Amino acid sequence: MAAKLIIGNWKSNKNTQEASIWIERFLEKATEVSENTEVVVAPAFTLLPSVVGVLEEVRNGKPSKTALEVVPEVVSELLPIKLATQDLSPFLAGSYTGAVSARNLENLRVEYALLGHSERRRYFHETHQDVARKVDQALLAGIKPVVCVDSEYIQVQASAIEDSQLKKCVIAYEPVEAIGTGRNVDVGQVKRIVDHIYNTFGKVKVLYGGSVTSDNVAEYTLVTDGVLVGGASLDPEEFLKICQRASGQQTQKSKL
Ligand code: PGA
């Protein structure tokens, strides 16, 4: 069975100190997450250096706080967290004030980029073409694009991306009415849209996002390749539960 991909999108939350504490608290129990789960967090750009710093300290066996002091024997397994950005410049490095290019991200261990999130489309007026240009930049830099779509424009977003690039993307189905509302959508609907995405984009990983919590994640990962989690990823303990239940490790009723 392929690993479930679980991405935590912190959006514009947390300062550097809070981000470091989150990483340390998650790592304290990271060995409880199945190897069959790929865990990714997407902090704001400005938080990446401090998050990378904590991860490096752990890798080098020099944790700044509790993580390794509590469980020193799990050093080698304490780097199960991969990093994503929440956006990416549609341009190469250059005179684009305010944009964060792939060049700016070098050495920050970024493996994924969330692109075309509905909040980017809504508040920053991103178009399908903008998202396609960002996909291009991400792939040039060896960063895996996670393209967020809602049901009504899957086809048009796919047509804006070159055929050769489509199958290199992860697709996140994010119905806008479910984002941040607590109104997660019916799993049957998710299954129908996921099948539609496979038909449109080809052999890609498909995630569901929209009010995912530790109570509902297990039903979604039965019909998807993983989940994109917003609000519930802000608390490391809740996110850990989500990661555990995503691969069927824990049932809702079993105790942590
Ligand atoms: P939510 O956000 O989990 O808070 O609904 C999901 C998202 O925006 O990706």
Short overview:
This protein is an alpha/beta fold and 256 residues long. The protein has helices spanning 16-28, 48-59, 66-70, 118-124, 128-140, 154-160, 163-166, 187-201, 217-221, 236-246, and strands spanning 4-9, 37-42, 81-85, 110-115, 144-149, 170-173, 205-209, 226-229.
Give a structural overview:
There is one protein chain. The protein has 256 residues and is an alpha/beta fold. Helix content is 36%, strand content 16%. It is built from ten helices and eight strands. Strands 1-2-3-4-5-6-7-8 form an eight-stranded parallel β-barrel. Helix 1 (16-28) packs parallel to helix 2 (48-59). The protein is globular. The structure holds 2-phosphoglycolic acid.
Write the layout of secondary structure elements.
Blueprint: E1 4-9, H1 16-28, E2 37-42, H2 48-59, H3 66-70, E3 81-85, E4 110-115, H4 118-124, H5 128-140, E5 144-149, H6 154-160, H7 163-166, E6 170-173, H8 187-201, E7 205-209, H9 217-221, E8 226-229, H10 236-246
Parallel strand pairs: 1-2, 1-8, 2-3, 3-4, 4-5, 5-6, 6-7, 7-8
This protein binds 2-phosphoglycolic acid.
